[in-house]
Write a structure and sequence with these properties.
16% strand, 4-stranded antiparallel beta sheet, 337 residues, 11 helices, alpha/beta
């Protein structure tokens, strides 16, 4: 475990660097990253300078930035001590929310009622998934605690990705018997009928983000086998009519493009032992002019019903390229409303 000391300098005491000492030089090398890229990332994000000397790291900068950087470095080193790797996403998560998490708690799939200070982790077959913002953490806890939850916010905030991760976790843990992923097949400029192939070929491009998420959490051959056995279903929203979805984890993605009647139809498919997640972005509605979005109506009609949870994301929760957040903020600022 790293130890922290303050080293006085010729300058005023407040300007003294924060000095961290790490006992294992091999882990320190991993902490710094190839060509010190991890240190450079932390420097850029927190506006500090990190200098390495032997088995020590000195953090220079404003006192608040020093403290944050020291906490991030100490937490990442503890991660390495636990046998975990440090990736750019881990640095991003620690910078965004490390101070709000104390220690490493059990994976959320093993203990579904975690305290506020515990780290949330979702176990899947291929990787451990960890929320990277406070809103994502609250959302994941909501998915485990509620039978019906909504995730609403801009692109790149992990709404669908985290929902599929939770679904895979519950499936491999035996809590549900199948995973059902659905999207409205709404045309956004290109007509379905003009695309080559049969119906599956026509709708698969709309479903591709759901396939991508699944393949991130399960081996591809297992995904193919489970789809063949109908333990995983990926289908357009229209295919849900008339069904009762029992003992299933059900995700409706891009719900802003469901009409009010489609949304009502989908919500009333919920069966015993099932959990349902609705995700969408109100700023990306592709429905014809004059057609009401079922997502907006669901917010208005269901907000007061107990055990239905609404989770909201903003541009601050975007975990794609930093430019995505800037683009979203620019469009929001130009919105005439």
């Amino acid at each position: 475990m790293a130890t922290t000391t303050k080293t006085p300098t010729a300058y005023e005491i407040d300007a003294a660097p924060e000095v961290l000492e790490f006992p294992d030089n091999f882990l320190l090398i991993d902490l710094c990253g190839e060509h010190d890229r991890n240190l450079a990332d932390i420097e850029q994000k927190l506006g500090v300078q990190v200098v390495r000397r032997g088995n020590q790291l000195s953090v220079h900068g404003e006192p608040e930035g020093q403290k944050e950087a020291a906490e991030v470095l100490t937490s990442l080193y503890a991660r390495l001590e636990a046998g975990r790797a440090v990736e750019p996403a881990d640095i991003d998560r620690e910078v965004r929310m490390g101070a709000s998490e104390k220690g490493t708690g059990p994976a959320v799939g093993d203990q579904m009622d975690l305290g506020v200070g515990d780290r949330v982790e979702i176990k899947t077959r291929k990787k451990m998934v960890e929320p990277r913002t406070d809103a994502q953490k609250a959302y994941v806890n909501s998915l485990f605690k509620n039978e019906l939850a909504f995730g609403i916010g801009p692109a790149g905030t992990g709404k669908t990705y985290l929902a599929v991760a939770v679904g895979v976790n519950l499936f491999i843990g035996g809590h549900v018997e199948k995973i059902i992923l659905s999207r409205p097949a709404v045309e956004a400029g290109e007509k379905l009928g003009y695309l080559p192939g049969d119906m599956k070929d026509k709708v698969d491009p709309y479903m591709q983000p759901l396939y991508d998420a699944l393949n991130d959490f399960l081996p591809q051959k297992q995904v193919e086998k489970l789809i063949e056995e109908k333990k995983i279903e990926i289908a357009p929203l229209a295919f849900m009519r008339g069904r009762t979805l029992g003992r299933a984890f059900v995700v409706l993605d891009e719900a802003q493009n469901a009409t009010t009647m489609q949304m009502k139809m989908f919500l009333t498919r919920l069966g015993e032992g099932s959990r349902m997640v609705i995700t969408g972005d109100r700023t990306q509605i592709d429905l014809p002019r004059g057609v009401s979005s079922g997502l907006r109506d669901a917010e208005r009609l269901l907000a007061g019903i107990p055990k239905i949870d609404f989770n909201y994301f903003t541009s601050k929760d975007v975990v794609r390229h930093p430019l995505v957040a800037a683009i979203i903020e620019a469009y929001e600022a130009d919105d005439p409303k």
